[in-house]
Amino acid sequence: MATPAFDSSVLTRRGVLAAAAGSLLLAGCGQQSDDGRTGDNSAPNSHELVIGASLELTGKGAALGVLQQRAMEITVEELNLTGIPVGNLRRTVRVEFRDNRSDPQEAARQATELTRRTQVHALVGGTSTENSMAIVEVAQKLQVPFVSLAAGDDIVLPLAQRTYIYKLTPDAGDVARRMARLIESLGIRRVAVLAAAGLHGDSGVQAVRSALRDVDVALVRTVRLPASGRSFTSVARRTTAGEPDGIIVWGTAPDSGAAARELRRAGHRGPIFFDPGAVAEDTLSGANAAAVEGAYAVHPSCLAASTLTATTTAELARRDFTYRYIQRHGSFSGFAPYGSDAVQLLAAAARSASSVDRGRLRAYLQTQVTEGIAGGYAFAPIRHGGMERDSLAVYVVSRAAWSRYS
User: Which residues does the UniProt record annotate as the domain Leucine-binding protein (predicted)?
Assistant: First the structure.
């Protein structure tokens, strides 16, 4: 099977950022020795590209974290069939997985251990914003590239303080604008927002307010989910008070599906709109199925990859990845490809840099203008949040499955 190949021919903002990335390519690169080390700042010489992954494999975040481990394992196996050319070596990829138990303190501890003791070349992980932010502090301090799998615009901002940090998920503003256009097209005039506690919800609330103003849709109230994750009954009642035409649920699985269920119990019969964090098997599970039927989600276009009409390199790669994932795990989740793309992006950076030196990996990550499994990325020295807005699409839940909405 073909490994996912990135297509850099898309003529959007990606083309502009590619040129910008090239002009500042080696800014901040360390002095590379023959074995790819920069003082104490890189892993010892080996024939591997070693990635440390701190993921939510248990605890509240497991609905998303487990998907990433599955995707990374599939992609590593595929890459290691031939290895990746890095300078005059052909390296295999090894991922050191850690379960952060959905605990930011544990995520930070693991990032430190992986960087200092295991001496990984790069870090990946944090499907929750809080866990990613904990890893950010360690990665930036120890100067190891970190590819975040979480949503939340502050993960890569301010850029001057996030020089080693990259984010794969779409920016909240891009998601909110796509969602606002959908809401307007459906003739909905009054909307309420039920948002997660914490940084992910903060980004969503701010983005939704701005996007709804642009389409002249009234935001009648904003309610936040309890940080404890306990009963959503009271917040659902507050959200549905005044009978808004539609409700935006901005959160992550498993909270998204549970929130939709409580909104229906509280009497909401209008449409529900999800951000990409809701797209996991849990949201469509038996307990939530009736509540989310007919709900909409804005999500990267990988969610409904066609096995019949794939023609481009990127589409074929998506089809092959989806096939392997379903073959191994029985069903496919649209959130899974971020882990695959993280591995591919780091492998591509190592190929381009001819090195696994951390400083050079960081510099060559910001040249990646590519089409991945989840969508298109356009990293540059001025932009470390790479998911492109033209990768987003609208989906609707139909018969317990995500279907492309047109």
Answer: 50-391
